[in-house]
Design goal:
Structural class: alpha/beta
Oligomer: single chain
CATH superfamily: Carbonic anhydrase
Low-confidence stretches: 1-45
CATH class: Alpha Beta
CATH architecture: 3-Layer(aba) Sandwich
CATH topology: Beta-carbonic Anhydrase, Chain A
Order of helices and strands: HHHEHEHEHHHHHEE
Number of helices: 10
Shape: globular
Number of strands: 5
Length: about 250
């Protein structure tokens, strides 16, 4: 009695098995060759770039990072365990940034930097006192940091509160009064200016006044004079993420 076979023959099955094995092998070579037994990718992280050692190079590095922030093309450099270990015993930040305490203005994000890149000081409205000034001085005077950036920002709540308190002659409560007093020269400049948005004018005035004071102070002025340090005043847009340079950009 003859037996009828409706399925594929033995040769067809063998051919299909060989083809499937080849396909799986090619796929593994293409996509799995770098994965070890633990499933982790052992490829090394890129080496960190050397820290800029001139004001111009440091300024260009920061502004390139802000460009990436604006364009949503972040590199997130210097943010891994290897970098953490490299910095465990020493650091050499290339920039010192004095900014407001505002939660929306984090210098490390705004300039797309990482561990060991920046000294960061923050105070309400970029108000300064001897402790803040000394903290800013630390980088250039102790670590050779070539760039200082004083960074104000759009719609600053501290500046707006100080402006209102000074205009109405109603001091802010507690130690907030110290911030208000520190911002008084910027308030007076905004009043003289007479623009439509006096709080924004006051915020920019505070940044420029602070940068001017740092450039001319007894300890930093010699470094600025010989071109070892630049002090830049800048203003951050909450709307666009862009940093506008007001003055002091190194040539």
């Amino acid at each position: 009695m003859s037996v009828r076979t409706d399925g594929p023959g033995r040769r067809t099955l063998l051919t299909g098995a060989v083809s499937l094995t080849a396909s799986l092998t090619a796929a593994c070579l293409a996509g799995c060759s770098t994965v070890g037994a633990t499933g982790a990718d052992p490829s090394p992280a890129p080496s960190p770039e050397p820290a800029p050692d001139t004001p111009k190079a440091a300024y260009e590095r920061l502004m390139a990072g802000n460009g990436r922030w604006v364009a949503n093309a972040l590199r997130h450099p210097d943010r891994d365990p290897t970098r953490r270990q490299l910095l465990a015993t020493s650091q050499q930040p290339y920039g010192a940034v004095l900014s407001c305490i505002d939660s929306r203005v984090a210098p490390e994000l705004v300039f797309d930097t990482g561990l060991g890149d920046l000294f960061v000081m923050r105070s309400g409205g970029v108000a300064v006192d001897p402790v803040i000034t000394g903290s800013v001085e630390y980088g250039p005077m102790v670590s050779g940091t070539p760039l200082i950036v004083v960074l104000g920002h759009q719609r600053c709540g501290a500046v707006a509160a100080a402006y209102k308190a000074l205009r109405e002659d109603r001091p802010l409560p507690g130690n907030l009064r110290a911030i208000m007093d520190a911002l008084r020269p910027a308030y007076e400049e905004a009043v003289r200016d007479g623009r439509a948005d006096p709080a924004e004018t006051m915020a920019k005035a505070q940044v420029k006044l602070t940068a001017d004071a740092l450039r001319g102070n007894r300890d930093l002025a010699p470094l600025v004079g010989k071109g070892a340090v630049a002090v830049v005043s800048a203003y951050y847009s909450l709307d666009t993420g862009a940093v506008e340079i007001l003055n002091g950009a190194p040539a």
